[in-house]
Amino acid sequence: MTARAPQFCSMAWAGRPVAIEHQWIEAGPSNGPLLVFLHEGLGSVSMWRDFPSRLCERLGWQGLVYSRPGYGQSTPRPLDEPLPPDFLERQALEVLPALLQALGVDGTRRPLWLLGHSDGGSIALIHAAHHTDSVAGLVVLAPHIMVEDVSVASIAQAREAYQTTDLRERLARHHRDPDSAFWGWNDVWLSPAFRDWSIEAMLPALTCPVLAVQGQDDEYGTLQQVFGIAAAAPHTTVEVFASCGHSPHKDQTERLLDLVTTFTGASSPNHANI
């Protein structure tokens, strides 16, 4: 077993101390590549299941999985504090750097790769565009670079499901405060202030190799999301999975494991500063 039990790291963010749930995967040397996993809008450490461990074992890399504030067992978001429209930018440019610093991770001294799903894919793209000296590569699964009508419609359906089905109970298995996790995500995505959100202008700043994967049947976005990345950052490889929805790591696990293994090997995990 390469995955340690989840731990907690205390750090200051948004004017208060927060505890961040995180898990190390010891599948590679401590001075080798590190793969950081960034979860979806309703994700957490536990919701990744065994995918991070399986991938890191295939790669022979260390892994770091964490739950953002408000998710998993990390400090919940106060219910009277809605997420701001720039919440993804704040996660990418404030929370992730603070966590890496608190854990002693220096991407200029070892290869740092980011793997993000959905909102986590957006966070990975934003972080890499602003930290070109420390990110060696990206794998983004069903990322968002803009808000589309299909995204808003599906998130509105999720609201209905949370209020009328057992979705809250299912999320409670993974989140210390499921209301904090759900309403923070749902309210901001459905807010008029978020409708014009876009990170397209940031994408030309990306300098590392990018693997962008999306399901043909993704209910939360069209393929313009991944092809938009490729149009702005030519060193992007796009892979579209047929018969696949919003979660390629769950819908087609083996294919994705093979693809990421091949991509990272071809891109070379070695870093210029090593």
UniProtKB/TrEMBL annotation:
GO terms for molecular function: hydrolase activity. Gene3D superfamilies: alpha/beta hydrolase (3.40.50.1820). Coiled coil: none annotated. It comes from the Bacteria. Transmembrane segments: none annotated. SUPFAM superfamilies: alpha/beta-Hydrolases (SSF53474). The keyword Hydrolase applies. The keyword Hydrolase applies. Pfam families: Abhydrolase_6. InterPro entries: AB_hydrolase_1, AB_hydrolase_fold. Residues 35-258 form the AB hydrolase-1 domain. Keywords: Hydrolase. This is Alpha/beta fold hydrolase. It comes from Hydrogenophaga atypica.
